[in-house]
Design a protein that fits this description.
It is a multi-pass membrane protein. InterPro entries: MetI-like, MetI-like_sf. With 510 residues, the chain is mostly helical. The protein has a single domain, classed as MetI-like fold. The protein is built from 20 helices and no strands. α4 crosses α20. The longest helix is centred in the C-terminal third of the chain and has 40 residues. The chain is globular.
Amino acid sequence: MAGGMLGVAILLIGWQMLAQALYQGRLIAGPVGIVEWLGRDPGLALRALARTLGNAAAGFALGNLAAILLAGIAFLWPRLQDLVTGLALVAFCLPLIATGPILRVLMGPGEGPQIVLAALAVQYTTLIPLLTGLRAVPAAWLDLIHSYGRGRWVELAHIRARAALPYLFAGLQIGAPAAVLGAMVGEFTGAERGLGVLTIRYMRDLDVPALWGVALLAAGASLAAYWAIGGLARLVLDTRPPVLLAPPMRQLRTGRVVGGLTLALAVLLLWWGGLWLTGLNPFLAKGPWDVLAALVWAPDATQMRAALFGALRESAGLAVPGYLAGLAAGAGLAILLTLLPGAGPLVMPVAVALRAIPIVTTGPLIVLFLGRGALGTITLVAVMVFFPTLVACLHGLRQAPGHILDLLRVHAAGPLSQMIHVRIPAMLPALFAAARISVPTAILAVTVVEWLATGRGLGSLMALAASTSDFRMLWSAVALITLLAVLCHAVVAGLERRVLARYAPEQLRQ
């Protein structure tokens, strides 16, 4: 605890010095300037914080309950697993800057859009680690259950639910800042109160201390939730991870093809059925046929495709290097903190703060500091990917079997040898879970930065389409981004199957 407080103190001191060094506070506001802003009107800030946290908490609860329910369905009925996870991925891939205005039209000026966006932001980040945890069970335990004639319900209640707890807590910690981000994006679309509303106001006024004050409030709330979930995990998780032994598993490629076709059909049916049930105005709501027509045979289809694919090339060129850099930084820092545990209390507050401060608040300022070119956008994408990777990998490294580590210590193996031969293989399922989560996260990050700061790429194109009521372009961009995310996710999942077939074959078991 003392180390954590020291880390926070070092962060605050370095922050104040940086603020003074860079343009005398005209770009970055230090803690002193933020405290002065809070002192001028604490009631306004606290009321906005309470409104945003209420929406984020409601979305956090709903999203995680949905993730737990979907994980249970996917486990109890294995044939539905690809469909369930695929639909959850599609929902997570929907760009917040596009779905926010649509939800505002559907749900009106209340709190509904904020809660829905917060729920969408967390459901997938919990579902994927939870499914990974449900499979992290020794085969001998399952054989024992089956020898008594018990089925999957007993497996789930007595073995798998317990095994999944470390991964569930990892997903909850990853989701806490994401819920705040989702709620603030919802407030950007026309809410009356909240931190997102204050952010818009202070961005227009160029009030740097107030803008950073809003960021600090959101980050503080996210940090508190992160630490609270971590404290609860330490109280609950009091057993050593078991040795996971499982026979090699093979999956038929034809099954994956059928699963992909089923998912595509389900998405199209849900898309069309949702529009039909809601009875939305055709000017606003575009269906699959409308998007296809706009891109293929409409009079302006050539210009539409040129605009979309030109923006896609620019966004992808920034998202891919940011994604890879974030994965490498998160996994590398997790390994370093495990080898040097004394550095954790000093480093973790900074690491969590980088992700806890919502990108919608600080993105424009960081892009202004690093430039509107590739460096600023890639950096922000890497920061968004870095945090879930770090948290997942830290939890994965802790899943190294204690008995195996004891055996290596008896033979005088040092921490580095233990890391290479035991901890990193145990971390691989968590790393790939983070890699899959981070695919849509990277796309979200690049589109938000383009929307708020750079004025280029798919994010800017969608914002322009929404502001000019060009709903053909908006829905086409959403469909293209979702398809891109699903394809990239499939590539990562294919690599995951190849690696885990050797190092963690229990993860391929249904």
